Amino acid sequence: MSFKLEQESQTKKWSFDQFCSKVEEAVYQYGGQSEQMAISLKRLLIELDFSDAVLKAYQETAWPIASYKVSSLYRSKTVAIVAIKIAAEAEIMPHNHPAMVGAITVVSGCVDITSFAAPSKGKVQFLERSAQTRLKPGDTASLTPEQDNYHYVRAIENSLLVDIFSPPYSLRRPPTNYQLNNPELINSQTIVPVQKVGLLKLIRARRAARRHNKQS
């Protein structure tokens, strides 16, 4: 994900219901204009009232153990809004958002996000790092289909994120996930080797993480 940080003081704050309506309006208005849509979604995240009951209730839920949890807050045919709780030191493997425009903000905590160009083709695949950004509370960032659509997330501390994506993931538009052959290289090398992770393996890994969380 290639990010432009944006911390602006705004006087207006939207309730979550108002926010969802504004997001739908922005997606309708800027359909086909990915850069303008991304700018609008970032601005709306800045204007979101995080003391709203919907978000406050989620903030009070338990943190995942050594993993992350994605919860749907709102979904339509054109928009998905999710909250992500990611534990300190936990990672979200490199993945993409095919043909999507997205925006993210950090509600609490701190995360490092590394963005990549599209992976190389062939038996041995590589991701080329294009940007690396540390996001703190109030920071916003965006992605588009054309710019650094692949990214990797690592939490510095327990962190809560809110993401908007348009259009949402679907069976026809699933993410492609990658496993880092050597995670230590991500900070020291521009080009890192990866392996594509099949959907079944990913589902099993997430189920194992959920079982671990319930037992802890």
Protein described:
The protein contains 4 helices and 9 strands; from the N terminus they run H-H-H-E-E-E-E-E-E-E-E-E-H. The protein has 216 residues and is an alpha+beta fold. It has one domain: Jelly Rolls (Sandwich), CATH 2.60.120.10. Strands 1, 2, 3, 4, 5, 6, 7, 8 and 9 form a 9-stranded antiparallel beta sheet that branches. The model is unreliable at 2-10 (pLDDT under 50).
Quick description:
The chain is an alpha+beta fold and 216 residues long.
Top CATH class = Mainly Beta
Kindly report the name of the CATH homologous superfamily. Jelly Rolls
Q: Based on the structure given, which CATH architecture is correct?
A: Sandwich
Q: At the third CATH level, what is the topology name?
A: Jelly Rolls
End-to-end distance: 32 Å
| Major sheet summary line | 9 strands, antiparallel
Report the structural category: alpha+beta
Mean pLDDT, to the nearest integer, reads 85
Number of distinct helices: 4
Helix content class? 10-25%
Instruction: Write the element-wise H/E pattern from the N-terminal end onward.
Output: HHHEEEEEEEEEH
Radius of gyration: 17 Å
Number of domains: 1
